[in-house]
Inverse folding.
């Protein structure tokens, strides 16, 4: 598998685990799989985009962390609107 697909699957799985530990509940495994694919895809796509910016090697980690934080904040904030099968406790 390519590096992108591996990153996509790993981040998607960790994202779903974070949602589950955070108290989000789903109606079934299909909802979790869709959510994992969605979160994993956008997080995996972000790294190559950030690495194209002309930043020095010391600040690339901080830019990547900032971009991931903003992206995940938006996704976590809007997850119940994006996928109606989800709800929080």
């Amino acid at each position: 598998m390519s590096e992108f697909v591996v990153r996509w699957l790993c981040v998607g799985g960790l994202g779903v685990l974070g949602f589950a530990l955070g108290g989000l509940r789903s109606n079934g495994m299909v909802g979790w799989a869709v959510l994992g694919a969605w979160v994993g895809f956008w997080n995996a796509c972000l790294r190559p985009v950030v690495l194209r910016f002309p930043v020095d090697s010391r600040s690339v980690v901080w830019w990547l962390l900032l971009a991931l934080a903003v992206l995940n904040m938006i996704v976590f904030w809007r997850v119940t609107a994006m996928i109606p099968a989800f709800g929080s406790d």
